[in-house]
Amino acid sequence: MTTTTPVAAPAPTTRSTRRWLALSILALAQFLVVLDASIVNIALPVLGQQLGIDTATLAWVITAYVLAFGGLLLLGGRLADRYGHRRIFLIGTAGFVAASALAGLSVTSEMLLASRALQGASAALLAPAALALLTHLFPETKDRTKALGVWGGVAGIGSAAGVLLGGVLTAALGWQSVFFINVPIGAIVLVAIPLLITRDKSGVHGKLDIPGAATITGALVAAVGALSAIEQVGFAHPLTIGLAAVSIALGVLFVFIERRTAEPLVPLDVFKNRNLTVGNIVMLLIGAAMVALFFALSVYMQAVLGYDALTTGLTQLPLAGALVVVAGLAPSIIHRFGTKPTLIGSLIVLAAGLVWLSFAPSDAQFLTQILGPSLLIGVGMGGAFVTTTQLSVDGVEGGEAGLAGGLINTSQQIGGALGLAILGTIAALRTESLIEAGVGAPEAITRGFSWLFLGTATVAVLGAITAGLVRKN
Protein backbone atom coordinates (compact mmCIF):
# COMPACT_ATOMS: atom_id res chain seq x y z
CA MET A 1 0.00 0.00 0.00
CA THR A 2 3.00 2.29 0.41
CA THR A 3 6.56 2.45 -0.81
CA THR A 4 7.85 3.05 2.70
CA THR A 5 9.51 0.01 4.23
CA PRO A 6 8.38 -0.10 7.87
CA VAL A 7 10.64 -0.89 10.76
CA ALA A 8 8.41 -2.98 12.94
CA ALA A 9 7.37 -5.90 10.78
CA PRO A 10 8.95 -8.96 12.39
CA ALA A 11 7.27 -12.29 12.30
CA PRO A 12 4.38 -11.85 14.73
CA THR A 13 4.98 -15.14 16.53
CA THR A 14 8.52 -14.11 17.55
CA ARG A 15 7.54 -10.99 19.50
CA SER A 16 6.96 -12.83 22.81
CA THR A 17 7.03 -16.30 24.32
CA ARG A 18 4.62 -15.12 27.04
CA ARG A 19 2.18 -13.24 24.89
CA TRP A 20 -0.86 -13.43 27.22
CA LEU A 21 1.18 -11.92 30.03
CA ALA A 22 2.43 -9.31 27.58
CA LEU A 23 -1.18 -8.59 26.60
CA SER A 24 -2.11 -8.01 30.25
CA ILE A 25 0.65 -5.39 30.56
CA LEU A 26 -0.39 -3.69 27.31
CA ALA A 27 -3.97 -3.69 28.57
CA LEU A 28 -2.79 -2.09 31.80
CA ALA A 29 -1.29 0.78 29.81
CA GLN A 30 -4.49 1.11 27.76
CA PHE A 31 -6.41 1.17 31.06
CA LEU A 32 -4.47 4.29 32.07
CA VAL A 33 -5.39 6.05 28.83
CA VAL A 34 -9.10 5.22 29.20
CA LEU A 35 -9.09 5.98 32.93
CA ASP A 36 -7.50 9.39 32.48
CA ALA A 37 -10.29 10.55 30.20
CA SER A 38 -12.78 10.44 33.11
CA ILE A 39 -10.97 10.25 36.46
CA VAL A 40 -10.09 13.95 36.43
CA ASN A 41 -13.72 15.10 36.11
CA ILE A 42 -14.63 14.38 39.73
CA ALA A 43 -11.52 16.19 41.01
CA LEU A 44 -12.12 19.40 39.04
CA PRO A 45 -14.09 21.38 41.67
CA VAL A 46 -11.53 20.71 44.42
CA LEU A 47 -8.63 21.26 42.02
CA GLY A 48 -10.05 24.57 40.85
CA GLN A 49 -10.58 25.80 44.39
CA GLN A 50 -7.07 24.94 45.59
CA LEU A 51 -5.24 26.28 42.54
CA GLY A 52 -7.52 29.28 42.11
CA ILE A 53 -8.70 28.26 38.63
CA ASP A 54 -11.97 29.74 37.37
CA THR A 55 -14.71 27.67 35.73
CA ALA A 56 -13.81 28.62 32.16
CA THR A 57 -10.18 27.62 32.65
CA LEU A 58 -11.17 24.38 34.37
CA ALA A 59 -12.77 23.20 31.13
CA TRP A 60 -9.32 23.39 29.55
CA VAL A 61 -8.01 20.78 32.00
CA ILE A 62 -10.12 18.32 30.00
CA THR A 63 -9.80 20.02 26.61
CA ALA A 64 -5.98 20.22 26.68
CA TYR A 65 -5.78 16.44 27.03
CA VAL A 66 -8.44 15.73 24.40
CA LEU A 67 -6.98 18.13 21.82
CA ALA A 68 -3.47 16.67 22.05
CA PHE A 69 -4.68 13.07 22.17
CA GLY A 70 -7.20 13.28 19.35
CA GLY A 71 -5.05 15.49 17.17
CA LEU A 72 -1.87 13.41 17.31
CA LEU A 73 -3.23 9.85 17.14
CA LEU A 74 -2.73 9.34 13.40
CA LEU A 75 0.78 10.72 13.58
CA GLY A 76 1.48 8.55 16.62
CA GLY A 77 0.30 5.44 14.81
CA ARG A 78 2.45 6.15 11.78
CA LEU A 79 5.52 6.89 13.89
CA ALA A 80 5.03 3.50 15.52
CA ASP A 81 4.97 1.81 12.09
CA ARG A 82 8.14 3.55 10.99
CA TYR A 83 10.29 3.56 14.10
CA GLY A 84 9.05 0.46 15.91
CA HIS A 85 5.88 -0.37 17.81
CA ARG A 86 7.63 -1.34 21.03
CA ARG A 87 9.95 1.66 20.91
CA ILE A 88 7.16 4.20 20.39
CA PHE A 89 4.97 2.46 22.97
CA LEU A 90 7.69 2.78 25.61
CA ILE A 91 8.37 6.42 24.69
CA GLY A 92 4.65 7.18 24.96
CA THR A 93 4.33 5.39 28.30
CA ALA A 94 7.38 7.17 29.74
CA GLY A 95 6.00 10.52 28.59
CA PHE A 96 2.61 9.72 30.10
CA VAL A 97 4.16 8.82 33.47
CA ALA A 98 6.32 11.96 33.51
CA ALA A 99 3.38 14.18 32.53
CA SER A 100 1.19 12.60 35.22
CA ALA A 101 3.81 13.33 37.87
CA LEU A 102 4.11 16.94 36.68
CA ALA A 103 0.33 17.33 36.73
CA GLY A 104 0.18 16.11 40.33
CA LEU A 105 2.95 18.51 41.31
CA SER A 106 1.32 21.49 39.56
CA VAL A 107 1.10 24.71 41.54
CA THR A 108 -0.29 26.92 38.76
CA SER A 109 -2.95 26.54 36.08
CA GLU A 110 -0.32 26.99 33.36
CA MET A 111 1.77 24.10 34.69
CA LEU A 112 -1.29 21.86 34.95
CA LEU A 113 -2.54 22.62 31.44
CA ALA A 114 0.91 22.01 29.93
CA SER A 115 1.12 18.70 31.80
CA ARG A 116 -2.32 17.66 30.54
CA ALA A 117 -1.34 18.45 26.95
CA LEU A 118 1.81 16.35 27.37
CA GLN A 119 -0.32 13.53 28.78
CA GLY A 120 -2.53 13.64 25.68
CA ALA A 121 0.40 13.73 23.29
CA SER A 122 2.03 10.77 25.06
CA ALA A 123 -1.24 8.82 25.00
CA ALA A 124 -1.39 9.44 21.25
CA LEU A 125 1.91 7.54 20.93
CA LEU A 126 1.00 4.84 23.44
CA ALA A 127 -2.51 3.82 22.31
CA PRO A 128 -2.01 2.98 18.60
CA ALA A 129 1.36 1.32 19.29
CA ALA A 130 -0.25 -0.89 21.95
CA LEU A 131 -2.97 -2.08 19.56
CA ALA A 132 -0.33 -2.71 16.87
CA LEU A 133 1.68 -4.84 19.30
CA LEU A 134 -1.47 -6.82 20.06
CA THR A 135 -1.90 -7.64 16.36
CA HIS A 136 1.71 -8.86 16.22
CA LEU A 137 1.31 -10.96 19.35
CA PHE A 138 -1.87 -12.60 18.05
CA PRO A 139 -1.70 -13.04 14.27
CA GLU A 140 -4.30 -15.82 14.20
CA THR A 141 -7.92 -14.64 13.99
CA LYS A 142 -9.22 -16.84 16.82
CA ASP A 143 -6.57 -15.79 19.35
CA ARG A 144 -6.71 -12.17 18.20
CA THR A 145 -10.46 -12.09 18.83
CA LYS A 146 -9.88 -13.40 22.36
CA ALA A 147 -7.21 -10.76 22.90
CA LEU A 148 -9.55 -8.04 21.67
CA GLY A 149 -12.12 -9.34 24.15
CA VAL A 150 -9.65 -8.49 26.90
CA TRP A 151 -9.08 -5.11 25.25
CA GLY A 152 -12.82 -4.39 25.24
CA GLY A 153 -13.11 -5.41 28.89
CA VAL A 154 -10.36 -2.98 29.82
CA ALA A 155 -12.25 -0.15 28.10
CA GLY A 156 -15.36 -0.92 30.14
CA ILE A 157 -13.51 -1.13 33.44
CA GLY A 158 -11.58 2.07 32.73
CA SER A 159 -14.68 4.07 31.83
CA ALA A 160 -16.53 3.13 35.03
CA ALA A 161 -13.47 3.12 37.29
CA GLY A 162 -12.69 6.72 36.37
CA VAL A 163 -15.79 8.02 38.11
CA LEU A 164 -15.40 5.66 41.09
CA LEU A 165 -11.66 6.11 41.63
CA GLY A 166 -11.86 9.85 41.02
CA GLY A 167 -14.30 10.25 43.89
CA VAL A 168 -12.45 7.93 46.28
CA LEU A 169 -8.96 9.30 45.61
CA THR A 170 -9.99 12.95 45.71
CA ALA A 171 -11.82 12.52 49.01
CA ALA A 172 -9.09 10.42 50.67
CA LEU A 173 -5.81 11.73 49.26
CA GLY A 174 -6.54 14.99 47.44
CA TRP A 175 -6.86 15.92 43.77
CA GLN A 176 -3.16 15.28 43.13
CA SER A 177 -3.71 11.55 43.61
CA VAL A 178 -5.81 11.22 40.43
CA PHE A 179 -2.59 12.00 38.54
CA PHE A 180 -0.08 10.28 40.81
CA ILE A 181 -1.90 6.94 40.50
CA ASN A 182 -0.57 6.70 36.94
CA VAL A 183 3.06 6.76 38.06
CA PRO A 184 3.45 3.34 39.76
CA ILE A 185 1.22 1.62 37.19
CA GLY A 186 3.18 3.16 34.34
CA ALA A 187 6.46 2.13 35.99
CA ILE A 188 5.29 -1.49 36.03
CA VAL A 189 4.54 -1.26 32.30
CA LEU A 190 7.93 0.29 31.52
CA VAL A 191 9.77 -2.49 33.36
CA ALA A 192 7.67 -5.40 32.09
CA ILE A 193 7.32 -4.74 28.36
CA PRO A 194 11.08 -4.88 27.52
CA LEU A 195 11.20 -8.23 29.33
CA LEU A 196 8.17 -9.66 27.53
CA ILE A 197 8.32 -8.32 23.95
CA THR A 198 11.34 -8.48 21.67
CA ARG A 199 13.05 -5.43 20.24
CA ASP A 200 11.83 -3.87 16.99
CA LYS A 201 13.91 -4.51 13.90
CA SER A 202 16.08 -1.60 12.85
CA GLY A 203 16.29 0.06 9.50
CA VAL A 204 14.15 3.09 8.68
CA HIS A 205 13.66 3.81 4.98
CA GLY A 206 12.08 6.80 3.30
CA LYS A 207 11.02 10.18 4.66
CA LEU A 208 8.27 11.02 7.09
CA ASP A 209 5.41 12.88 5.40
CA ILE A 210 5.82 16.16 7.32
CA PRO A 211 3.24 18.18 5.28
CA GLY A 212 0.70 15.39 5.68
CA ALA A 213 1.42 15.09 9.41
CA ALA A 214 1.07 18.85 9.92
CA THR A 215 -2.20 19.18 8.00
CA ILE A 216 -3.98 16.15 9.50
CA THR A 217 -2.87 17.07 13.02
CA GLY A 218 -4.11 20.62 12.50
CA ALA A 219 -7.38 19.37 11.02
CA LEU A 220 -8.04 17.01 13.92
CA VAL A 221 -7.11 19.57 16.58
CA ALA A 222 -9.40 22.14 14.93
CA ALA A 223 -12.21 19.58 14.65
CA VAL A 224 -12.01 18.61 18.31
CA GLY A 225 -11.73 22.28 19.23
CA ALA A 226 -14.85 23.12 17.22
CA LEU A 227 -16.80 20.32 18.89
CA SER A 228 -15.65 21.46 22.32
CA ALA A 229 -16.63 25.03 21.45
CA ILE A 230 -20.17 23.90 20.65
CA GLU A 231 -20.62 22.87 24.29
CA GLN A 232 -19.31 26.19 25.59
CA VAL A 233 -20.46 28.88 23.13
CA GLY A 234 -22.93 27.18 20.77
CA PHE A 235 -23.14 26.19 17.11
CA ALA A 236 -23.38 29.70 15.64
CA HIS A 237 -20.51 31.34 17.57
CA PRO A 238 -17.69 32.69 15.35
CA LEU A 239 -15.15 30.53 17.23
CA THR A 240 -17.07 27.34 16.43
CA ILE A 241 -17.59 28.30 12.80
CA GLY A 242 -13.97 29.40 12.38
CA LEU A 243 -12.52 26.21 13.84
CA ALA A 244 -14.86 24.07 11.73
CA ALA A 245 -13.82 25.95 8.58
CA VAL A 246 -10.12 25.52 9.42
CA SER A 247 -10.66 21.79 10.04
CA ILE A 248 -12.42 21.28 6.70
CA ALA A 249 -9.83 23.30 4.78
CA LEU A 250 -6.91 21.42 6.32
CA GLY A 251 -8.69 18.10 5.77
CA VAL A 252 -9.09 18.82 2.07
CA LEU A 253 -5.46 19.93 1.85
CA PHE A 254 -4.40 16.71 3.60
CA VAL A 255 -6.19 14.55 1.03
CA PHE A 256 -4.57 16.58 -1.77
CA ILE A 257 -1.11 16.06 -0.24
CA GLU A 258 -1.62 12.34 0.37
CA ARG A 259 -2.70 11.73 -3.22
CA ARG A 260 0.50 13.29 -4.54
CA THR A 261 3.22 12.22 -2.13
CA ALA A 262 5.24 9.06 -2.78
CA GLU A 263 5.35 8.12 0.92
CA PRO A 264 2.07 9.30 2.48
CA LEU A 265 1.40 9.48 6.20
CA VAL A 266 -1.96 7.78 5.56
CA PRO A 267 -2.03 5.78 2.30
CA LEU A 268 -5.58 6.43 1.09
CA ASP A 269 -5.68 2.93 -0.40
CA VAL A 270 -6.07 1.63 3.16
CA PHE A 271 -9.73 2.68 2.99
CA LYS A 272 -10.31 0.23 0.15
CA ASN A 273 -10.37 -2.33 2.96
CA ARG A 274 -14.14 -2.23 3.49
CA ASN A 275 -14.10 -3.86 6.91
CA LEU A 276 -11.52 -1.38 8.21
CA THR A 277 -13.58 1.52 6.87
CA VAL A 278 -16.86 0.20 8.28
CA GLY A 279 -15.16 -0.57 11.60
CA ASN A 280 -13.96 3.03 11.93
CA ILE A 281 -17.36 4.50 11.04
CA VAL A 282 -19.10 2.27 13.57
CA MET A 283 -16.46 3.08 16.21
CA LEU A 284 -17.08 6.79 15.63
CA LEU A 285 -20.77 6.18 16.32
CA ILE A 286 -20.07 3.98 19.37
CA GLY A 287 -17.73 6.66 20.73
CA ALA A 288 -20.45 9.29 20.27
CA ALA A 289 -22.98 7.18 22.16
CA MET A 290 -20.60 6.09 24.92
CA VAL A 291 -19.20 9.50 25.90
CA ALA A 292 -22.61 11.21 25.80
CA LEU A 293 -24.11 8.37 27.85
CA PHE A 294 -21.52 8.38 30.65
CA PHE A 295 -21.67 12.18 30.87
CA ALA A 296 -25.47 12.16 31.13
CA LEU A 297 -25.58 9.30 33.66
CA SER A 298 -23.09 11.04 35.93
CA VAL A 299 -24.99 14.35 35.92
CA TYR A 300 -28.44 12.71 36.14
CA MET A 301 -27.52 10.62 39.16
CA GLN A 302 -25.90 13.49 41.04
CA ALA A 303 -28.01 16.50 40.03
CA VAL A 304 -31.38 14.73 39.85
CA LEU A 305 -31.25 11.61 42.02
CA GLY A 306 -28.97 13.21 44.63
CA TYR A 307 -26.23 10.55 44.64
CA ASP A 308 -22.74 11.53 45.77
CA ALA A 309 -19.70 10.92 43.54
CA LEU A 310 -18.84 7.56 45.13
CA THR A 311 -22.39 6.21 44.85
CA THR A 312 -22.57 7.42 41.26
CA GLY A 313 -19.45 5.44 40.45
CA LEU A 314 -20.80 2.33 42.17
CA THR A 315 -24.07 2.49 40.21
CA GLN A 316 -22.12 2.29 36.95
CA LEU A 317 -20.34 -0.92 37.96
CA PRO A 318 -23.16 -3.24 36.75
CA LEU A 319 -22.92 -1.65 33.29
CA ALA A 320 -19.16 -2.04 33.28
CA GLY A 321 -19.44 -5.58 34.63
CA ALA A 322 -21.83 -6.61 31.87
CA LEU A 323 -19.50 -5.03 29.32
CA VAL A 324 -16.51 -6.95 30.68
CA VAL A 325 -18.36 -10.29 30.74
CA VAL A 326 -19.68 -9.92 27.19
CA ALA A 327 -16.30 -8.71 25.94
CA GLY A 328 -14.83 -11.94 27.28
CA LEU A 329 -17.58 -14.02 25.66
CA ALA A 330 -17.45 -12.10 22.36
CA PRO A 331 -14.84 -14.40 20.71
CA SER A 332 -17.12 -17.43 21.18
CA ILE A 333 -20.18 -15.48 20.03
CA ILE A 334 -18.37 -14.27 16.90
CA HIS A 335 -17.11 -17.79 16.16
CA ARG A 336 -20.62 -19.21 16.42
CA PHE A 337 -22.74 -16.53 14.77
CA GLY A 338 -20.28 -14.55 12.63
CA THR A 339 -18.90 -11.02 12.73
CA LYS A 340 -21.73 -9.17 11.01
CA PRO A 341 -24.63 -10.72 13.00
CA THR A 342 -22.73 -10.22 16.27
CA LEU A 343 -22.08 -6.54 15.56
CA ILE A 344 -25.60 -5.79 14.35
CA GLY A 345 -27.15 -7.70 17.26
CA SER A 346 -24.93 -5.93 19.80
CA LEU A 347 -25.86 -2.49 18.47
CA ILE A 348 -29.58 -3.33 18.51
CA VAL A 349 -29.29 -4.50 22.14
CA LEU A 350 -27.43 -1.27 22.94
CA ALA A 351 -30.17 0.82 21.29
CA ALA A 352 -32.87 -1.09 23.20
CA GLY A 353 -31.14 -0.40 26.53
CA LEU A 354 -30.83 3.31 25.71
CA VAL A 355 -34.51 3.58 24.75
CA TRP A 356 -35.47 1.85 28.00
CA LEU A 357 -33.26 4.25 29.97
CA SER A 358 -34.96 7.25 28.34
CA PHE A 359 -38.12 6.42 30.31
CA ALA A 360 -36.40 6.79 33.71
CA PRO A 361 -38.23 9.45 35.77
CA SER A 362 -36.79 12.16 37.99
CA ASP A 363 -37.39 10.00 41.08
CA ALA A 364 -36.12 6.75 39.56
CA GLN A 365 -35.27 3.79 41.76
CA PHE A 366 -31.96 2.22 40.77
CA LEU A 367 -32.94 -1.44 41.13
CA THR A 368 -36.24 -1.20 39.25
CA GLN A 369 -35.69 1.54 36.68
CA ILE A 370 -31.95 1.93 36.00
CA LEU A 371 -30.28 -1.42 36.61
CA GLY A 372 -32.10 -3.24 33.79
CA PRO A 373 -31.29 -0.79 31.00
CA SER A 374 -27.74 -0.44 32.35
CA LEU A 375 -27.17 -4.18 31.96
CA LEU A 376 -28.56 -4.15 28.41
CA ILE A 377 -26.34 -1.21 27.52
CA GLY A 378 -23.30 -3.02 28.92
CA VAL A 379 -24.12 -6.17 26.95
CA GLY A 380 -24.55 -4.25 23.70
CA MET A 381 -21.51 -2.06 24.20
CA GLY A 382 -19.25 -5.00 25.08
CA GLY A 383 -20.13 -6.97 21.96
CA ALA A 384 -20.01 -3.95 19.69
CA PHE A 385 -16.68 -2.65 20.98
CA VAL A 386 -14.81 -5.93 20.54
CA THR A 387 -16.29 -6.70 17.12
CA THR A 388 -15.67 -3.19 15.81
CA THR A 389 -12.04 -3.18 17.00
CA GLN A 390 -11.52 -6.53 15.27
CA LEU A 391 -12.92 -5.16 12.01
CA SER A 392 -10.62 -2.14 12.20
CA VAL A 393 -7.51 -4.36 12.02
CA ASP A 394 -8.97 -6.97 9.66
CA GLY A 395 -6.58 -7.68 6.81
CA VAL A 396 -4.11 -4.96 7.85
CA GLU A 397 -0.45 -5.73 7.12
CA GLY A 398 2.02 -5.63 10.01
CA GLY A 399 3.68 -2.49 8.66
CA GLU A 400 0.39 -0.60 8.88
CA ALA A 401 -0.81 -1.95 12.22
CA GLY A 402 0.12 1.31 13.95
CA LEU A 403 -1.83 3.27 11.35
CA ALA A 404 -4.87 1.05 11.95
CA GLY A 405 -4.52 1.60 15.71
CA GLY A 406 -4.29 5.35 15.19
CA LEU A 407 -7.35 5.35 12.94
CA ILE A 408 -9.62 3.42 15.31
CA ASN A 409 -8.55 5.48 18.33
CA THR A 410 -9.06 8.69 16.36
CA SER A 411 -12.53 7.55 15.33
CA GLN A 412 -13.42 6.87 18.95
CA GLN A 413 -12.09 10.24 20.15
CA ILE A 414 -13.73 12.29 17.39
CA GLY A 415 -16.95 10.36 17.87
CA GLY A 416 -16.90 11.04 21.61
CA ALA A 417 -16.38 14.77 21.09
CA LEU A 418 -19.07 14.82 18.39
CA GLY A 419 -21.61 12.95 20.49
CA LEU A 420 -21.07 15.05 23.60
CA ALA A 421 -21.20 18.32 21.64
CA ILE A 422 -24.35 17.59 19.64
CA LEU A 423 -26.35 15.38 22.02
CA GLY A 424 -25.27 17.37 25.07
CA THR A 425 -26.37 20.58 23.41
CA ILE A 426 -29.75 19.08 22.47
CA ALA A 427 -30.28 17.96 26.07
CA ALA A 428 -29.27 21.38 27.41
CA LEU A 429 -31.62 23.25 25.04
CA ARG A 430 -34.50 20.95 25.94
CA THR A 431 -33.84 21.47 29.65
CA GLU A 432 -33.64 25.26 29.27
CA SER A 433 -36.91 25.44 27.34
CA LEU A 434 -38.72 23.38 29.99
CA ILE A 435 -37.37 25.52 32.84
CA GLU A 436 -38.51 28.66 31.00
CA ALA A 437 -41.95 27.02 30.72
CA GLY A 438 -42.07 26.63 34.50
CA VAL A 439 -41.03 22.99 34.87
CA GLY A 440 -38.95 22.23 37.96
CA ALA A 441 -35.19 21.73 37.51
CA PRO A 442 -35.04 17.98 38.34
CA GLU A 443 -37.87 17.15 35.95
CA ALA A 444 -36.47 19.46 33.24
CA ILE A 445 -33.01 17.89 33.46
CA THR A 446 -34.54 14.41 33.33
CA ARG A 447 -36.56 15.20 30.20
CA GLY A 448 -33.50 16.78 28.57
CA PHE A 449 -31.47 13.66 29.18
CA SER A 450 -34.37 11.54 27.91
CA TRP A 451 -33.83 13.21 24.53
CA LEU A 452 -30.10 12.55 24.83
CA PHE A 453 -30.67 8.84 25.53
CA LEU A 454 -33.03 8.59 22.54
CA GLY A 455 -30.38 10.36 20.46
CA THR A 456 -27.73 7.84 21.48
CA ALA A 457 -30.16 5.02 20.63
CA THR A 458 -30.56 6.52 17.15
CA VAL A 459 -26.78 6.64 16.80
CA ALA A 460 -26.59 2.94 17.74
CA VAL A 461 -29.23 2.07 15.11
CA LEU A 462 -27.22 3.99 12.50
CA GLY A 463 -24.24 1.89 13.55
CA ALA A 464 -26.25 -1.30 13.02
CA ILE A 465 -27.27 -0.15 9.54
CA THR A 466 -23.64 0.67 8.72
CA ALA A 467 -22.57 -2.76 10.01
CA GLY A 468 -24.65 -4.28 7.23
CA LEU A 469 -21.81 -3.29 4.86
CA VAL A 470 -19.38 -5.69 6.55
CA ARG A 471 -18.15 -8.22 4.01
CA LYS A 472 -17.58 -11.23 6.23
CA ASN A 473 -20.39 -13.07 8.00
Largest sheet: none
CATH superfamily: MFS general substrate transporter like domains
CATH class label: Mainly Alpha
Q: What share of residues is helical?
A: over 70%
Strands, total number:
0
Number of helices: 17
- Name the overall outline: globular
What is the overall pLDDT average? 85
Q: In terms of per-residue confidence, which ranges show pLDDT below 50 for 5 or more consecutive residues?
A: 1-13
Question: What's the layout of helices and strands?
Answer:
Elements: H1 19-36, H2 39-51, H3 55-83, H4 85-104, H5 109-137, H6 141-173, H7 177-180, H8 182-196, H9 210-233, H10 238-260, H11 274-304, H12 309-315, H13 317-337, H14 339-357, H15 366-392, H16 401-436, H17 441-467
Helix pairs in contact: 1-5, 1-6, 1-8, 2-3, 2-6, 3-4, 3-5, 3-9, 3-16, 4-5, 4-8, 5-16, 6-12, 6-13, 6-15, 9-10, 9-16, 11-15, 11-16, 11-17, 13-14, 13-15, 14-15, 14-17, 16-17
